[in-house]
C-alpha cells in the first residue's frame, strides 16, 4: 500500500467520528460554540475540537466519556466510533468479545472461581465435568 492509499484509509477511519461530532456540534450551535465547549472541557483553544470535527485528529479515548456527557451521546456508542480511529474492525471485534458484559450470575461464578482456583493451573476434565453437573443441577425446576 502506497502513502496515498494509507492516507485515504486513515481518512476513512476518521470520517465516522468527524461526522458524528459535526452533527452534534451543529445541533448545539449557535447557542454553544467550539470555544465554549473547549473552555468547559479544559482545552486552551478550540483547535483540538476543530481538528477532530474535520477528521484531522483522533479523539483521545480517555476523553470519550467527557465528550459523550457534554454532547449527550451514548458513551459506548461514542467509544466504539472513536475506537475505530485507533484500531481495525478485527481488533475492535476481538475487544468486544473479550469485554462483553457479564450477567450477574456469570459475575458471581467468576468471583467464586477466582477465589478458589489456583492461578496458572488448568482445569482437569474431571473438574470441568463436575462443574457442568453443578450448573445442570442448579437450574430452576420446570413449572
Description:
InterPro entries: Cro/C1-type_HTH. The model has no long low-confidence stretch (mean pLDDT 85). The protein starts with a helix and ends in a 6-residue tail after the last helix. The chain folds into 2 domains: 3-98, lambda repressor-like DNA-binding domains (434 Repressor (Amino-terminal Domain), Orthogonal Bundle), CATH 1.10.260; 104-137, no CATH class. The protein contains 8 helices and no strands. α4 (64-71) crosses α5 (75-86). The radius of gyration is 23 Å and the shape is elongated. It has 143 residues and is mainly α.
- Category from helices, strands and their pairing: mainly alpha
Strand content: under 5%
* Share in helix: 55-70%
Question: Nearest-angstrom radius of gyration?
Answer: 23 Å
Question: Helix segment count?
Answer: 8
Please trace the helix and strand order, writing H or E for each element: HHHHHHHH
Task: List how many beta strands DSSP finds.
Answer: 0
Instruction: Tell me the overall shape.
Output: elongated
Distance between the ends: 62 Å
The number of domains: 2
Mean of the pLDDT scores? 85
The third-level CATH topology of the largest domain is: 434 Repressor (Amino-terminal Domain)
> Main beta sheet, described?
none
* Fourth-level CATH superfamily of the largest domain: lambda repressor-like DNA-binding domains
Low-confidence residue ranges = none
InterPro entries: Cro/C1-type_HTH
Amino acid at each position: 500500500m502506497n502513502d496515498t492509499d494509507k492516507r485515504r484509509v486513515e481518512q476513512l477511519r476518521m470520517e465516522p467520528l468527524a461526522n458524528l461530532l459535526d452533527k452534534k456540534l451543529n445541533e448545539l450551535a449557535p447557542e454553544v460554540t467550539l470555544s465554549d465547549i473547549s473552555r468547559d472541557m479544559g482545552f486552551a483553544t478550540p483547535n483540538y475540537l476543530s481538528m477532530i470535527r474535520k477528521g484531522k485528529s483522533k479523539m483521545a479515548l480517555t476523553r470519550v466519556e467527557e465528550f459523550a456527557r457534554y454532547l449527550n451521546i451514548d458513551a459506548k456508542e461514542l467509544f466504539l466510533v472513536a475506537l475505530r480511529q485507533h484500531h481495525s474492525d478485527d481488533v475492535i471485534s476481538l475487544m468486544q468479545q473479550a469485554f462483553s458484559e457479564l450477567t450477574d450470575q456469570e459475575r458471581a461464578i467468576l468471583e467464586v472461581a477466582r477465589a478458589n482456583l489456583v492461578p496458572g493451573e488448568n482445569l482437569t476434565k474431571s473438574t470441568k465435568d463436575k462443574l457442568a453437573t453443578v450448573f445442570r443441577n442448579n437450574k430452576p425446576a420446570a413449572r
